[in-house]
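Form 7-S
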Amino acid sequence: MSFDWRPESKDRYFRKAEAAVKAAGFDDILQISKEQFAITKSTVKVYFKPIPREGKTRRWWEAKKSIAGMQEQSGGRDEFGRKKKTIFIHAYMVLEMEEQDR
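Output:
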């Protein structure tokens, strides 16, 4: 069975991510972006609004350590092969897809 992509189906995962962030106490910097949503084979990615790096990087690292499934999109590499550092942190959370959505 494939995912139906209705707003109600996506909203379940948004609520799960929001509850995890609120329980960990990072709802001041992590707000869910309801415009972005992705599905892989057995996982769901819930994206957050961009976080400005200036003054928030330490708090982001704390959130990444304490909340399971938190990840950051890489900024890519420059022409010399060095990692690029973006102005914003583009965070997302990976959640397991529920059995009824598979």
